[in-house]
Amino acid sequence: MQLRGVLLVALVTLLALSSAAAAKKKDKVKKGGPVGDCAEWTWEPCTPSSKDCGVGFRVGTCGAQTQRRRCRVPCNWKKEFGADCKYKFENWGACDPGSGTKARQGTLKKARYNAQCQETIRVTKPCTPKTKAKAKAKKGKGKD
Fold first, then answer.
1. Are residues 36 and 70 in the same domain?
2. What is the pLDDT of residue 53?
3. 92-103 tens-digit pLDDT
4. On the CB side of 134, how many CA atoms lie within 13 Å of its CA?
């Protein structure tokens, strides 16, 4: 009978501790959310921790408050217009034989974190030489 009482007290204590821990976790401010009453945050571009791409941090300021958020710079981003400017691009144009490049134009679709983005941009890349596709050998065909 005493064993049941001890087990019951232990169970109640365990439940009380777990509910207190859950309440403490619930009281924490959402990770990465704005702090205080400030409404106009300005954010710097994402700065990678090492090299020129990958995981890094973005610093935001609002009045006297500053905040750091984790961010990620894609390794295939275009340095000319930044990772925070998102564009909708047209199809690639014809190859210019004089320069050996082809170009396309993009219009601004979205500017993240109040980034200063150009409305339209033009990007170029080298033309690829046309190669004829090799005929694939048929599989499964043995000697006739």
1. yes
2. 81
3. 999 999 999 999
4. 3
Same domain, 82 and 50: no
Q: How many domains does the chain have?
A: 2
Residue 35's contacts (CB-CB under 8 Å, 6 or more residues apart) are 29, 65, 67
Say yes or no: 85 and 105 in one domain.
Answer: yes
Q: Same structural domain for residues 70 and 107?
A: no
Q: Which amino acid is at 131?
A: T
- Domain coverage including residue 102: 78-127
Q: Are 56 and 48 in contact (CB under 8 A)?
A: yes
Put simply, whether the predicted model's pTM sits higher than 0.85 gets the answer: no
